[in-house]
Amino acid sequence: xxxxxxxxxxxxxxxxxxxxxxxxxIYECYDQCSRSGVGYAYLQSALNIHGEDQEDAYQRARIxxxxxxxETARGILIDPxxxxxxxxxxxxxDVYLATGETARAKSIYQLIQATYGDSAHCFNGLAMCSxxxxxxxxxxxxxxQGLAMKRGLRDGTGENKGVHGPLRYRSARPxxxxxPVDPLIKTGSGES
Length: 192
Known about the structure:
Layout: H1 2-15, H2 20-32, H3 36-46, H4 54-67, H5 70-82, H6 86-98, H7 102-116, H8 120-132, H9 136-148, E1 168-170, E2 178-180
Antiparallel strand pairs: 1-2
């Protein structure tokens, strides 16, 4: 029940007012209930948390990302990305995608791969770049590589915190139909 979850989350914020994830969880609950305006107020409150480390910078940038203030998010992420703080690097890729800078996003995801190795999250980011550039075959190849990874998406914590929406691809077949990419589907033809 979302109402109970919201009540518990609000109580938890009172007990731990410096926990970014609590504010993010409240925002996500309100957003799922089509009340993102109320959720935005919690994101704004989270910006009052004072901290100086890379995690704090990442969390503040994440909040600005959700608020749609990509330039502020980008500015906050510069130092953590230069220090190769993995969650910040993924978020910077997401910021570049959101602003249509696919070449920069691709460069960040490739840097993450070179620094930390392959992950489904990297392949997802690279696939989103290819989709944005309408390079359907490359996107499908990258999606397939990501799905082949044994475990879930990696963002430095082992959790999927990517902000990408559902992946879609345009088939190379003549009918060119848009098909959703389902992790249970192993081929583009819908066969499992």
